């Protein structure tokens, strides 16, 4: 459903900087792919290009057979709010809105009926265990709750592709585990394709496949197999093989 | 939640963010409205005030409106800039540009409507005060009673609803498609330092020097010719001063590690250069707008002083009478009798003195010079309670050129060095110099013993001068008497209280309007600074929170914030004060009239207001940061 071909990105500036080189990537419908790599390797850049936040310098991106970068502005807006969902490391909730209002925002933009929005918000809040905080404002909830609200917001319009940039980056290990389990179950039940950038091997082990990039280039990929535990070990091994020291990998990139 | 609800919630729940924008809009409406209350007062529509003043008011209203427009537009774009990230997020969730525009449009209509209504309400509260104030400044005969300003309300309401509507449409321009990535990273991205080159920095300095130099150099009517070029040169110079010179200086400071890495300096300078582009633009605008305010008020005030104080000082008596050369003795006598009669009718107690002004060709300074007899001089001295003089038989006392004469027209030859030569070869030597304004003469002259006058040849011209001095506290009567005298005797007679009254009356509306506009400009300059400061508040909070974790004492925090705000508040104002001082100097040259006290008064007043404003804003800013950090 997602296909990257030869994607490259050069940041123009005082010194042009090549952040991505010839990235090819395919994500099947319903697949859960994690992208890992040392800090500065171009993960966020890659995700921004897929999510149409940024444009690639070379190569093409196709989602469901369409190239979103070639869409007109209005069509692109519609495309974003129908096909894509986003989860950010720092949640990016709107602090003027309540939790519930944040969740229904994509539907509001779509112009859905209020009743429908209410129902959907209640349903998704139940699944994510945030039904009790629906009336609260964003500064009244914890980081783990905020990220679940962000996931609910990203999911409420049932996007085909969910993109997440270090969704556990600002969370403690307990909250990380909850959030990852939630993402995994959404992926499983709703058959939503999921592409997640992370530096956390624990989080990555929930995926079906991990793609490693380094210095903006494809490095390698490993598949999950049967057990999550074994997969986790393989990820750790690969990371140490890549040679990025642990400190670099686990340092929180803001 | 529908889209409209969303837009409204966004405003109502985020009051602090919107407050600055709302308040400045409110303020603008209020100013316009109070002005309208005044301008539409029924007392003016009766045709009692002259058409010039009415025209002036219309122009002033227009200026205030146009200025409001740009002010609100600027406030709004500053406000929208600070919300880039929010827009970016919404667009990520699939908001179309149209929807964002609609949202901002709705917000603006809401804020604009509330600001208009609020501004009118507050204006109504202050209406009485404004009218009282206007009454006093204006010197109009009828009182400006309070009235319900229906017309002013309608005009203000319609004008500002239109203004906000138009501005809301402008939003599309401001939100012109930026790349999403720029929007989302918006608040973290440095706008960068403006490019600074040594050449441009030098040009900045040269432009300012050239502008100032010209302003100081030109005299008299040349000032008018030089004004526009000088203004353009100085504005350019100021722009380059803030965008080039300041960047250059900060860069040099940053390169100097002993300064840059010393204690809290690093925080201060890195911040300064991070915000340099925004700051440079704000500083430039604030400096120019403040200069306009200072110069406008200074000019008007100086002009008024030129007219009133100048008149008063050049003729210190309550009433003077200086007949024309052609006047016959008979007419003079008749006029004097008439005046004495009027003074009596008005029950003014006066003392009169008459002197003869005899001018001689003494071959000094290419002009005829007054030689006064000691008894004449002493008669006027007695009138004003000044010390009499007693020159010896062959001595002269020199009365220096009036202090009101500018240096440029200083007499070539000092009278002190030139003795008076009598026909018989005798010389009358000047022995001392005094400074008085007793005679209606601005150039220097001699006082000699009465016997000397007889020995002098026939004067080139000779005319009488009459002066009356009224006892204190009779201003009202003197104005009444003056009015009659000016009607019956005309130009040669001048009753000072009445002249000043007339000048003030004619000048009042202009002064009032000028003050009004000046204050509007100055206050909006202040709110530009406020915007600039508060758009960085969140960033500052975040920054200080993380630095405080590394160990920054409250004292150090205060110091950094203090310097940062002080620089922001005073850098542009100091420039504006210097500009203003130069402008007033040029004005003084134009009128050939010393404006130092007036300039000090006006500029000092503004400096003081700015200091108070700074102290208040700093107090709250530090308080907010501390609340967020500790
Ligand atoms: N806007 C930008 N301009 C220039 N260089 C950038 C920009 N954004 C990111 N980079 C550079 O591109 C590289 C990849 O960045 P990023 O994708 O954020 O890495 P990460 O894998 O840590 O998410 C980094 O070296 C970064 O410095
Ligand atoms: Mg990243």
Automatic annotation (TrEMBL), chain A:
Identification of the protein by name: ABC transporter ATP-binding protein
Organism: Tigheibacillus jepli
Record-linked InterPro entries: AAA+_ATPase, ABC_transporter-like_ATP-bd, ABC_transporter-like_CS, MacB-like_ATP-bd, P-loop_NTPase
Highest taxon above the source species: Bacteria
Record carries keyword Nucleotide-binding: yes
Secretion signal span: none
CDD domains: ABC_MJ0796_LolCDE_FtsE (cd03255)
Keyword ATP-binding set for record: yes
Domain (ABC transporter): residue spans on this chain: 2-240
Entry keyword set: ATP-binding, Nucleotide-binding, Transport
Any one Gene Ontology molecular-function term assigned to this protein's record: ATP binding
Family stated for the protein in its record: Belongs to the ABC transporter superfamily.
Pfam families on file: ABC_tran
UniProtKB/TrEMBL annotation, chain B:
A Pfam family: FtsX
Keywords in alphabetical order: Cell membrane, Membrane, Transmembrane, Transmembrane helix, Transport
Membrane topology note: Multi-pass membrane protein
Compartments where located: Cell membrane
Primary localization: membrane
Stretches assigned to the ABC3 transporter permease C-terminal domain: 59-178
The UniProt record lists the keyword Membrane: yes
Transmembrane segments: 20-41, 53-80, 100-126, 146-175, 196-218, 224-250, 283-303, 510-533, 566-588, 600-621
Keyword Ribosomal protein part of the UniProt annotation: no
InterPro entries according to UniProt: ABC-4_Integral_Memb_Prot, ABC3_permease_C, ABC_permease_BceB-typ
Highest rank taxon of the organism: Bacteria
Family to which the UniProt record says this protein belongs: Belongs to the ABC-4 integral membrane protein family.
Name recorded for this polypeptide: ABC transporter permease
């Amino acid at each position: 459903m997602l296909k990257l071909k030869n994607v490259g990105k050069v940041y123009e500036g005082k010194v042009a900087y090549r952040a991505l080189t010839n990235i090819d990537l395919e994500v099947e419908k319903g697949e859960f792919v994690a992208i890992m790599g040392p800090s500065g390797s171009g993960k966020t850049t890659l995700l921004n290009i897929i999510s149409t936040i940024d444009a690639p310098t070379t190569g093409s991106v196709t989602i469901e057979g369409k190239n979103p970068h070639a869409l007109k502005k209005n069509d692109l807006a519609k495309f974003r709010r129908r096909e894509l969902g986003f989860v950010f490391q720092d949640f990016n909730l709107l602090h003027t809105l309540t939790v519930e209002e944040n969740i229904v925002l994509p539907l509001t933009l779509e112009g859905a009926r209020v009743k429908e929005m209410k129902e959907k918000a209640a349903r998704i809040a139940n699944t994510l265990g945030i039904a009790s905080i629906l009336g609260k404002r964003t500064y009244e909830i914890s980081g783990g709750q905020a990220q679940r609200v962000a996931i609910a917001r990203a999911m409420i319009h049932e996007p085909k592709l969910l993109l997440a940039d270090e969704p556990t980056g600002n969370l403690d290990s307990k909250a990380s585990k909850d959030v990852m389990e939630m993402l995994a179950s959404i992926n499983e039940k709703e058959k939503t394709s999921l592409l997640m950038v992370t530096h956390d091997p624990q989080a990555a082990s929930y995926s079906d496949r991990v793609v490693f990039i380094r210095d903006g280039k494809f490095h390698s990929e490993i598949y999950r197999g049967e057990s999550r535990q074994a997969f986790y070990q393989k990820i750790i091994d690969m990371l140490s093989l890549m040679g990025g020291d642990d400190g670099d990998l686990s340092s929180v990139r803001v | 939640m529908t889209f409209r609800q969303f837009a409204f919630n966004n405003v109502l729940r985020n009051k602090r963010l919107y407050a600055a924008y709302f308040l400045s809009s409110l303020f603008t409406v209020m100013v316009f409205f109070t002005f309208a209350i005044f301008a539409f007062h029924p007392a003016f529509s009766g045709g009692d005030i002259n058409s010039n003043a009415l025209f002036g008011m219309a122009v002033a209203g227009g200026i205030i409106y146009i200025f409001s427009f740009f002010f609100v537009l600027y406030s709004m774009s500053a406000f929208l800039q600070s919300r880039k990230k929010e827009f970016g997020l919404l667009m990520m969730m699939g908001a179309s540009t149209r929807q964002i525009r609609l949202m901002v449009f709705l917000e603006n209509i809401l804020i604009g409507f509330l600001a208009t209504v609020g501004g009118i309400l507050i204006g109504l509260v202050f209406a009485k005060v404004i009218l009282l104030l206007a009454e006093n400044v204006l010197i109009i005969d009828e009182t400006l009673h309070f009235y319900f300003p229906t017309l002013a309300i309608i005009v203000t309401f319609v004008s500002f609803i239109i203004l906000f509507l138009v501005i809301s449409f402008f939003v599309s321009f401001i939100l012109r498609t930026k790349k999403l990535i720029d929007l989302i990273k918006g608040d973290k991205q440095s706008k960068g330092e403006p490019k600074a080159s040594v050449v441009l920095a030098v040009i900045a300095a040269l432009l300012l020097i050239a502008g100032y130099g010209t302003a100081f150099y030109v005299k008299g009517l040349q000032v008018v010719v030089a004004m526009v070029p000088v203004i353009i040169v100085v504005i350019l110079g100021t722009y380059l001063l803030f965008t080039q010179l300041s960047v250059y200086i900060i860069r040099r400071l940053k390169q100097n590690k002993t300064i840059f890495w010393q204690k809290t300096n690093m925080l201060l300078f890195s911040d300064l250069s991070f915000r340099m582009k925004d700051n440079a633009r704000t500083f430039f605008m604030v400096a120019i707008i403040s200069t306009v305010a200072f110069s406008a008020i200074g000019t008007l005030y100086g002009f008024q002083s030129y007219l009133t104080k100048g008149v008063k000082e050049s003729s210190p008596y309550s009433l003077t009478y200086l007949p024309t050369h052609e006047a016959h003795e008979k007419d003079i006598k008749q006029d004097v009798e008439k005046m004495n009669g009027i003074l009596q009718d008005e029950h003014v107690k006066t003392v009169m003195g008459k002197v003869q002004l005899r001018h001689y060709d003494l071959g000094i300074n290419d002009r005829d010079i007054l030689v006064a007899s000691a008894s004449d001089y002493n008669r006027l001295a007695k009138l004003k309670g000044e010390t009499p003089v007693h020159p010896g038989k062959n001595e002269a006392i020199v009365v220096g050129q009036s202090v009101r004469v500018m240096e440029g027209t200083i007499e070539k030859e000092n009278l002190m060095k030139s003795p008076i030569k009598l026909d018989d070869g005798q010389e009358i030597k000047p022995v001392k110099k005094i400074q008085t304004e007793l005679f209606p003469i601005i150039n220097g002259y001699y006082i000699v013993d009465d016997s000397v006058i007889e020995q002098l040849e026939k004067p080139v011209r000779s005319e009488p001068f009459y002066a009356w001095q009224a006892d204190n506290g009779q201003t009202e009567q003197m104005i009444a008497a003056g009015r009659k005298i000016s009607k019956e005797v005309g130009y040669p007679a001048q009753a000072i209280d009445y002249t000043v009254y007339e000048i003030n009356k004619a000048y009042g509306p202009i002064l009032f309007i000028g003050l009004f506009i000046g204050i509007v400009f100055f206050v909006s300059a202040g709110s530009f600074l406020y915007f600039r400061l508060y758009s960085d508040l969140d960033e500052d909070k975040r920054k200080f929170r993380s630095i405080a974790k590394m160990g920054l004492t409250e004292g150090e925090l205060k110091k950094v914030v203090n310097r940062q705000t002080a620089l922001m508040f005073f850098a542009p104002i100091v420039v504006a004060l210097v500009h203003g001082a130069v402008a007033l100097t040029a004005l003084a040259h134009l009128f050939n009239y010393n404006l130092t006290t007036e300039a000090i008064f006006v500029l000092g007043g503004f400096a003081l207001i700015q200091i108070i404003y700074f102290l208040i804003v700093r107090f709250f800013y530090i308080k907010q940061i501390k609340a967020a950090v500790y």
